[in-house]
Task: inverse folding
């Protein structure tokens, strides 16, 4: 496996507030990697930094090429799909329009191809198909989360950045969603970088994990190893 | 207030008092208008700057204040100074009443409602059933007050001092109001009205109150303006006056008390400069000035001054630290 | 041998007090120049009139090139007031107190001039030949420092009323007027002129300058059954009204006021064929009227425009107006000679006997005296035949 | 009764004018969530461009389309050059930039072309239609053109990927960026489209009100009202709003309150409606669940 994403010494700030203080990590192609950490540790900022939605310093390499000076729109064109915090639904558009937008940055967006992808995604999430003509703003929270993931999938991404995919969802729905993510990872070879508050679930999904505290990586290892770490268990897993 | 600020203010006030003795009467008149505009802008700033309700029609309240003064002086023979409280009260009520329905309107819709008020007020002033009082399209000519107590100054200088006194009073009141609980509530409503509602702040009362107080300030300014110009007519209060006020608070600096003064200086003097530069297209030059100011100081002159002061302070501190 | 220079010296010594006695100046005038102040709307919604100020400025440039007035250059100081009375006050004060002009000339607009009326008279600075047709400028008793120039709106309104009474005493009159001082002055003139026959007016409708069109008003007038239409508008609305009336098939006897009788800026845009039969009054020659094509004064005006105001619009009658009114001031200042006091300028302006310049219609003259501060009081009735304004009847007024 | 019909027809004709400019306002609102005060002056300026072409001998329709293209480019350039620098400034600063644009365009046009009114040709025949002389062929044609523009816009936004991207960018710029939409360019395109629609409006309005630099001044307020009555996010609503305002104003002026106060009363009514129904007659209300 080659390194898909290499981040070294990444700094980021919102205005005068520094959030990331030199984060470094590596992500392998095909893996599901998770960033763990408490509220405010800088997980969301890390994902935003990868897409250049905040000002950064330091180096980010994707497939070996530097992307830390490129515009968000161009990074998306490298097939990095971001499922943002708060889902980023286009509330006034229909479900299907939301999904079609997901394919916007694809170079091969012939109508037939996009339509086929839509069907594929409706197979994963039949509920979205039922609601395809409905205003996306009227979908339930769980449905909107599925929509966000689906929209990302429409890019046929190499890498998906998932920001708190379980946030505010009923446990059953989270289970369903994570199941699908696993399938996608296995079947479609989509690498995933997942940020989660719910560390237990994240570690179940991921094969590799980094622990972030106040803008720095403090621990890394395979998901299993991390899960067994006493500190992590006490602070994040709660048993 | 720090000691430095108090000293600065005292110096400024002294300069303002000395001004009429140093410059020509025509300049005194101009600075008189600057003071008038400063009060008007302070009013608009309460509403738009502090409370976030956009008004594109504040010229209407300025006009109401002006007509109050003119009608009372011309028809009822009231002395000029006695018209100010009346103008203030009338505009307070008018603003409060207009603010009630405006409560239901947000953003653009409020902008339209106020814009509509600004556009239609001149035609109301011309309305033939009101002509008896307003003088219709001819307007009302009023006399300039003479200095009282045999003061050895001329009418322009006296009026300037009178206006200065009113300005200082109005600004002190505004300053007390805005830095306290009321000011914080206004800003909080502007920034997040859902949260303030949850915190038990009565948004509705504060918002209509902001409208009323804002209209009151602008109305007092209108009355003072009418006394200075000695004439009111519907043509004096077109929609461009309202837009000029908006320009004033944005260029001066939103939600800033000194901003009102900077803005007043801008709207008084920059159009004259534009006219000096080009007779052919004075508005074009004015527009370019506007663009220049917004580009260079997006937070207004007050914002730029604040930033410059902060930088100076930081530099001074650094120097202290290094020595 | 020495006698000659001594004699010369003596002569000079004797002559100079006399010469000094003749040369009298107020602020704004000296041996070299005469400073004339003005306000005009160069910006804002009334900026169409700004061309008058520019034409006057161009005229005095020409005068200066030709040696000035009695050897003095005219300095034209004109400021933008955006048609806002408070700004006019400010600018008038700047002109009088800071720029030290001798007089204010052709300040434009009824509200603007009303705003400075008192001030100018208190300061005793002439407010000469103001660019508005309100009646109040002719009040030498109370306002001896203010004088109008053009025929006043009320008189003109009365002339149309007289014409209607004389030609069609059974007329049913519909009136469209601009809802401001200008429209209301005409309306008053018409009503006064009709006297006890004021009932002939079957409908009066107004419009605001901010209205996009007057279509609705024209439809209202047609519905009222009026057969005579008095159109008191400014050029754009006049053109709209003429066209709309024609288009909806309303064919009243159509009177349009002098301000909107320009071929170039009203009749042409409305469509010349739609303007046939229009009745109006004039006191100046219309530069686009065929009958003046070879007229010397219009040719001279065109040459002036080409050389001194090339940006100016040749179809705009306002430029003839500016040129003519500037000639009037030229005459006043010439008459004033070396006595360039403000009082003498007013005195000379009030002592024009039968003076005319060729851009005025034949028969129009300026007459003023100490009790009559209304320079042009006569107008010529005219009717449009599709190409030219045909003069008919005699000169009306004084 | 007949008089009423006449006023309604005249109202529809002027309503068509309001509708066409309202459409441009809605357009730019959809793209930028701002109401552009300079929209009317942009339209006026573009119409002068058309006038210049036609006077130089270019036939009407080529001049028409050249003007639409010119206005589009002008809109894009203005967004890139003038609006860009204040992207992150407070909303009111942007409003001041709009006012600056308004006065600059107005003044420069007056300077170049003078303030005398000019006739602007109509592409439609003269004479009456449907046996009535109250609605001229041009007025009818102008309404038709407005409706065609409306349908084209609808098709563009509803069925093209670019239209979809523009809607997305206006609604949620952050998310739009995350699906790869170049939001900055979408704004510029929005400006371009709005200016192009404005140019069409200008060319349809000018034959009715005559071309002069202040041509759009009075219309802007009505268009603004029309856009809001119809719901500022809804082009169909804007057009209907335009007709409503036109008819309402005429009927009120002719039969109820007289011409003097018709504007004031019409506006008061509109505001009354907005107080009761704050999103306009046809505006959508979104309930977003979180």
Result:
């Amino acid at each position: 496996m080659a390194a898909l994403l290499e981040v070294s010494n990444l700094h980021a700030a919102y205005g005068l507030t520094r959030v990331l203080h030199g984060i470094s990590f590596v992500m392998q192609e095909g893996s599901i990697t998770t960033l763990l950490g408490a509220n405010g540790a800088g997980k969301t900022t890390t994902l935003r930094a990868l897409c250049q939605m905040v000002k950064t310093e330091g180096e980010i390499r994707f497939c070996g090429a530097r992307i830390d000076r490129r515009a968000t729109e161009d990074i998306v064109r490298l097939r990095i799909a971001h499922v943002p915090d708060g889902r980023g639904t286009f509330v006034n558009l229909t479900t299907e329009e939301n999904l079609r937008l997901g394919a916007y940055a694809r170079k091969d967006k012939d109508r037939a191809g996009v339509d086929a992808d839509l069907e594929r995604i409706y197979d994963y999430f039949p509920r979205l198909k039922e609601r395809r003509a409905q205003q996306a703003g009227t979908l339930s929270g769980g449905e909107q989360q599925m929509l966000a993931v689906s929209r990302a999938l429409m890019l046929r991404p190499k890498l998906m950045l998932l920001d708190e995919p379980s946030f505010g969802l009923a446990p059953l729905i989270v289970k369903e969603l994570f199941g699908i993510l696993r399938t996608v990872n296995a079947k479609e070879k989509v690498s995933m970088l997942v940020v989660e508050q719910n560390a237990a679930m994240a570690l179940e999904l991921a094969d590799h994990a980094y622990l972030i505290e106040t803008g720095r990586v403090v621990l890394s290892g395979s998901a299993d190893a991390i899960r067994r770490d006493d500190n992590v268990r006490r602070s994040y897993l709660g048993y | 207030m720090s000691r430095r600020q108090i000293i600065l203010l005292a110096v400024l006030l002294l300069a303002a008092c000395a001004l009429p003795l140093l410059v020509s009467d025509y300049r005194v008149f101009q600075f008189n208008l600057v003071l008038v505009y400063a009060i008007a802008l302070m009013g608009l700033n309460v509403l738009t700057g502090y409370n976030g309700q956009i008004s594109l029609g504040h010229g209407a309240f300025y006009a109401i204040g002006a007509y109050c003064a003119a009608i009372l002086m011309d028809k009822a023979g009231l002395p000029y100074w006695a018209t100010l409280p009346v103008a203030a009260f009338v505009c307070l009520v008018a603003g409060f009443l207009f603010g009630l329905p405006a409560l239901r309107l947000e953003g653009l819709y409020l902008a339209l409602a106020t814009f509509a008020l600004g556009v239609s007020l001149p035609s109301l002033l011309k309305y033939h059933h009101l002509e008896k009082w307003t003088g219709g399209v001819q307007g009302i000519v009023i006399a300039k007050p003479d200095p009282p107590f045999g003061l050895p100054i001329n009418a322009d200088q006296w009026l300037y001092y009178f206006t200065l006194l009113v300005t200082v009073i109005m600004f002190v009141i505004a300053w007390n109001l805005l830095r306290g609980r009321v000011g914080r509530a206004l800003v909080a409503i502007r920034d997040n009205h859902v949260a303030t509602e949850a915190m038990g702040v009565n948004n509705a009362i504060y918002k209509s109150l902001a409208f009323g107080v804002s209209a009151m300030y602008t109305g007092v300014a209108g009355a003072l303006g009418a006394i200075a110009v000695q004439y009111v007519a519907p043509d004096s209060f077109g929609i461009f006056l309202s837009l000029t006020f908006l320009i004033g608070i944005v260029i001066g600096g939103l939600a800033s008390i000194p901003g009102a003064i900077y803005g007043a200086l801008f709207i008084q003097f920059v159009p004259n400069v534009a006219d000096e530069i080009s007779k052919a297209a004075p508005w074009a030059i004015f527009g370019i000035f506007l663009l220049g100011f917004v580009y260079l100081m997006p937070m207004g002159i007050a914002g730029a001054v604040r930033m410059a002061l902060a930088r100076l302070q930081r530099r001074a501190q650094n120097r202290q630290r290094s020595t | 041998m020495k006698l000659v220079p001594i004699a010369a010296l003596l002569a000079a010594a004797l002559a100079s007090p006399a010469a000094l006695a003749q040369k009298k100046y107020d602020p704004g005038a000296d041996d070299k120049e005469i400073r004339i102040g003005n306000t005009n709307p160069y910006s804002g919604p009334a900026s169409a009139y700004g061309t008058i100020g520019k034409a006057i400025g161009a005229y005095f440039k020409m005068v200066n090139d030709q040696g000035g007035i009695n050897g003095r250059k005219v300095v034209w100081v004109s400021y933008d007031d955006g048609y806002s009375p408070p700004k006019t006050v400010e600018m008038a004060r700047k002109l009088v107190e800071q720029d030290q002009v001798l007089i204010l000339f052709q300040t434009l607009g009824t509200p603007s001039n009303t705003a400075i009326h008192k001030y100018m008279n208190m300061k005793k600075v002439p407010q000469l030949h103001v660019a508005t047709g309100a009646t109040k400028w002719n009040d030498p008793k109370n306002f001896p420092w203010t004088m109008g120039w053009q025929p006043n709106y009320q008189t003109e309104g009365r002339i149309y009323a007289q014409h209607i009474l004389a030609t069609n005493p059974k007329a049913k009159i519909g009136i469209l007027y601009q809802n401001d001082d200008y429209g209301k002055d005409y309306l008053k003139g018409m009503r006064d002129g009709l006297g006890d026959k004021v009932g002939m007016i079957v409908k009066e409708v107004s419009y605001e300058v901010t209205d996009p069109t007057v279509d609705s008003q024209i439809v209202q007038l047609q519905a009222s059954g009026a057969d005579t239409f008095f159109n008191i508008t400014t050029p754009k609305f006049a053109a709209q009204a003429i066209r709309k009336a024609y288009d909806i098939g309303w064919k009243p006897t159509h009177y349009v006021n002098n301000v909107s009788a320009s071929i170039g800026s009203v009749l042409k845009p409305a469509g010349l064929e739609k303007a046939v039969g229009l009745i109006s009054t004039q006191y100046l020659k219309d530069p686009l009227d065929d009958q003046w094509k070879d007229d010397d004064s219009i040719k001279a005006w065109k040459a002036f425009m080409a050389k001194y105001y090339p940006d100016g619009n040749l179809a705009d009658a306002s430029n003839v107006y500016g040129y003519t009114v500037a000639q009037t001031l030229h005459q006043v200042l010439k008459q004033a000679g070396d006595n360039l006091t403000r009082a003498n300028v007013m005195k000379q302006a009030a002592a024009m006997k039968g003076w005319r310049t060729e851009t005025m219609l034949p028969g129009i003259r300026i007459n003023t005296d100490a009790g009559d501060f209304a320079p042009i009081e006569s107008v010529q009735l005219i009717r449009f035949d599709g190409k030219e304004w045909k003069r008919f009847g005699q000169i009306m007024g004084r | 009764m007949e008089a009423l019909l006449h006023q309604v027809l005249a109202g529809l004709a002027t309503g068509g004018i309001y509708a066409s400019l309202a459409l441009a306002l809605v357009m730019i609102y959809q793209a930028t969530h701002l109401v552009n005060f300079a929209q009317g002056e942009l339209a006026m300026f573009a119409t002068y461009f058309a006038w210049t072409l036609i006077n130089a001998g270019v036939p009407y329709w080529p001049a028409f389309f050249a003007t639409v293209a010119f206005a589009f480019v002008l809109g894009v350039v203005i967004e890139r050059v003038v609006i860009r620098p204040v992207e992150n400034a407070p909303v009111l600063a942007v409003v001041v930039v709009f006012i600056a644009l308004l006065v600059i365009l107005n003044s420069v046009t007056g300077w170049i072309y003078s303030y005398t009114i000019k006739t602007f040709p109509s592409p439609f025949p003269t004479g009456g239609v449907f046996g009535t002389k109250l609605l001229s062929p041009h007025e009818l044609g102008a309404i038709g053109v407005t409706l065609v523009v409306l349908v084209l816009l609808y098709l563009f936004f509803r069925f093209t990927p670019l239209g979809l991207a523009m809607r997305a960018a206006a609604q949620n710029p952050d998310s739009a960026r995350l699906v790869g939409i170049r939001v900055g360019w979408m704004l510029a395109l929005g400006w371009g489209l709005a200016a192009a629609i404005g140019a069409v409006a200008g060319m349809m309005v000018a034959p009715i009100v005559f071309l002069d630099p202040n041509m759009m001044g009075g219309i802007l307020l009505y268009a603004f009202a029309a856009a809001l009555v119809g719901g500022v996010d809804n082009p169909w609503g804007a057009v209907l709003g335009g007709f409503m305002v036109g008819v309402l104003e005429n009927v009120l002026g002719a039969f109820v309150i007289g011409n003097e106060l018709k504007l004031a009363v019409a506006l008061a009514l509109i505001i009354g409606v907005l107080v009761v129904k704050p999103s306009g007659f046809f505006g959508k209300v979104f309930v977003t669940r979180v």
